[in-house]
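Sequence only, no structure available. Ideas?
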Amino acid sequence: MATVVGKEHLSSCLVLAEQSSKKYFVIKLENHTAREVEKKFKEIVINNNLIGKIKGIITDRGKEFSKWREMEIFVETQVYFCDAGKPRQKPLIENMNGEFRKWFPKGTDFNNVSQKRIDWVVNNVINEKLRPCLNWISAKEMFLQNI
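Reply:
I predicted one. C-alpha cells follow.
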C-alpha cells in the first residue's frame, strides 16, 4: 500500500496491490491525511470483497498510514512497514506505481483527473496486462479466479 502524490503535493491517490494476483487498486484521496487514507482503504476493501482475504499489507512509514492498526483490524491481517528510505522492500507496489505513472506522470494534478479515468486505466490497461509471473494471465483474471 502506498500513495501516489500529485503536482505540488496538492492531490494524491491511495494505491493497493494484491500480492497473489498482482491486481492493482487506485482511489483518489480528498486530502492526504491518515483519516482519509483509512476511509478510502476501507472503501477499496468493501467494494472488492477483500475482508479476511488479504494476507498482509506492506507500506512505508508515511504519516498518512498512522491509522494502520484500524486498517489491520478492519481487514483481519497485519500491516508491515518497510525501512525508511527503502521502497525496494515493497517491489510489487513500486513496480505497479511505475506503470501507473506512464499514464499519470509526476506533476499530474489528480484534482483534474476523474476517478472514472483512473479506473479505466487501472482496469483496462494495468490489470489487463498479461504477466509472465502469472503464467501469462492478467491480474484481473487471476484475481477473479482466486478471490
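The chain has one domain: 2-103+110-115+127-146.
Hope that gets you unstuck.
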